[in-house]
Amino acid sequence: MNMCRPVDVAKWWQQENPAAQRRAPSSSSPSSSSSSVRLMEAVRCVASEQRRMLSSAQPLSTLPRLRRSSFPQQRGRSRHFLITATSTSGLQVALYVFTEAGELSSFSKMSVFGPVVKIHPVVLASICDSYERRNEGASRVIGTLLGTIDKHSIEVTNCFSVPHNESEDEVAVDMEFAKNMYELHKRVSPTEVIIGWYATGFDITEHSVLIHEYYSREASNPIHLTVDSALQSGKMNIRAYVSAQMGVPGKTVGVMFTPLSVKYVYYDTERIGVDLLQRTRVTPSRTKGLTSDLSQVAGSAARVQDMLTTVLAYIEDVLSGKVTADNSVGRFLMDLVNKVPTISAEDFENMLNSNINDLLMVTYLSNLTQAQIALNEKLVLL
Amino acid sequence: LPVSLPKVVLKIIKHYQEEGQGSEVVQGVLLGLVVDDRLEITNCFPFPQHTEDDADFDEVQYQMEMMRSLRHVNIDHLHVGWYQSTYYGSFVSRALLDSQFSYQHAIEESVVLIYDPIKTAQGSLSLKAYRLTPKLMEICKEKDFTPEGLKKANIGFEHMFEEVPIVIKNSHLISVLMWELEDKSTVADKHELLNLSSSNHLEKSLQLLMDRVDDMSQDIVKYNTYSRNLSKQQQQKHQYLQRRQQENAQRQSRGEPPLPEEDITKMFKPPQPPPRMDTLLIAGQINNYCQNVKEFTSQNLGKLFMAEALQGHN
């Protein structure tokens, strides 16, 4: 696979904008800012076009203003670079790297570099909650992510929000607060460590880089999670990034945020909790009481019944020739039918009856006990 | 009636999963607001496990710090209750009563959320909210646990706790999150509820029930001895009085001064009535176990009949 090294990119960028080579980080020279503004314009159009292209899975044919000849391109796999340049310091460059792999059409599936990020739903719920509670005027919320690091995966299990102020030029994060909270959390779950930070909002801004630097002092190689709570693209995109150094050593150094793939993991009980929460989507008032007793069994049975109807419909279609039969599905169906154990009717009757007897006996016993204690109560009060 | 938000549910589940595997219970504090006639629970944080050294002081300080920090990020920091996990439904204990009493004394509306992880693992979220009935509150205030006191209040084990229904309310953003999760996550096994195996659960429940019944019977024996003692004492008192009167009559007939009436109460000290609070608690616990077992068996009966239907078609 031909990879275009970040070094080449930096060189290319310098060629394009020779004026931006001035290294003064504080003052923003007008020429570099204008060129970077131009570049940002370019980036914006390209970004929107990228999205359009990727969603329709067409081969890329138009890339305005970025010189594509310097990018080696392979059949079916091409690398697009989008570069945003900050206006304050021409050196800090954040890159988005997207890879299109063949038939992929959704924007969120990207190929992986490095560890997989596994997120628990409790983290996302907390993030959404803190977004809803943000101060007036703040456009986004940030906070710390806690979790555990494995060799190949990072598991995010907890988070808390950190107050911060953000304006055009600067960003202030209350690190003292973050440290305190971390200590408190550590007392409860000593296995969790700071593994990164999160921010709501779609893009990675220049402030993110600074904040990321703060966090890299706390944890080695922190990950950055963005949750698009403003629903800019119609869905809530949840992405994770890891930072990597890029650039020519000694000269222009930048930070690149490479995306990681995000998976959701649940504990079993969490899964059940989330299921209950899923059911609140349906009711218009978004509320749901906790069901009890037989209604739960009925609910489960109804779900299984739904699934069976879908399967039956599929079978009907195949039989009537509307849909071509798929062998793997056929095998699954065979498995399904064979799973119902064939027991002789008599044996099954016996098993069923003994089980029912057990349950009835236990019910009787508990009723008896309850009557007994009620009696005892009455006798004492005499 | 309390309304809880999904964050709380998930946090409680997670806390138990991570920390509570070995030990008895995990506890934590509920935070929220009181709105109209509803109690909204919007956040919670867990307590660290009790260590050997200086547990109390740590707790209070920990709480204070947590609440202060949460205030900075605009999270409601008002105490509205606490939560606890339970093992097979055995949570009616003196400690729970005391804690809940102190909470309810301070904050009128507070509840205790009981989370049953084992039942949840079986397929459906088991989260219940309880408050002490006003009658019980009064008794706890008086600290009068004698049988007379309880008779006065006319309280039975069924009236100790009142269960409050819980409603889970989602904001729109969370609904979007739910849709997203539904898309992205793999279809996990959602069918633990239809699991037919019941003997394990029943065994454990019944064992706990038996233990409690044993406790109860010991308590009853104690009470019986007490009442027997009391009645024996009454008899003795009566006999003594009679003898006294007889003697007095004899003396009078003989012309001697009557013996003074001695203070009877000093002679026969009434036996100490045993405190009835424990009995009440045990009775409540037994009741709880029985309820759980009955729920479980009814569910299983349903499942068994379903299995029969499945076999029937075969």
Automatic annotation (TrEMBL), chain A:
Residues 25-36 have a biased composition (Low complexity). Residues 117-247 form the MPN domain. It is found in: Cytoplasm. InterPro entries: eIF3f, EIF3F/CSN6-like_C, JAMM/MPN+_dom, MPN. GO terms for biological process: formation of cytoplasmic translation initiation complex. Residues 15-36 are annotated as: Disordered. Component of the eukaryotic translation initiation factor 3 (eIF-3) complex, which is composed of 13 subunits: EIF3A, EIF3B, EIF3C, EIF3D, EIF3E, EIF3F, EIF3G, EIF3H, EIF3I, EIF3J, EIF3K, EIF3L and EIF3M. Deubiquitinates activated NOTCH1, promoting its nuclear import, thereby acting as a positive regulator of Notch signaling. Belongs to the eIF-3 subunit F family. HAMAP family: eIF3f (MF_03005). This is Eukaryotic translation initiation factor 3 subunit F.
TrEMBL record, chain B:
GO terms for molecular function: metallopeptidase activity; translation initiation factor activity. Residues 2-136 form the MPN domain. GO terms for cellular component: eukaryotic 43S preinitiation complex; eukaryotic 48S preinitiation complex; eukaryotic translation initiation factor 3 complex. It is found in: Cytoplasm. Residues 244-277 are annotated as: Disordered. SMART domains: JAB_MPN. Keywords: Cytoplasm, Initiation factor, Protein biosynthesis. It comes from the Eukaryota. InterPro entries: eIF3h, eIF3h_C, JAMM/MPN+_dom, JAMM_MPN+_peptidase_M67A, MPN. HAMAP family: eIF3h. PANTHER family: EUKARYOTIC TRANSLATION INITIATION FACTOR 3 -RELATED (PTHR10410). This is Eukaryotic translation initiation factor 3 subunit H.
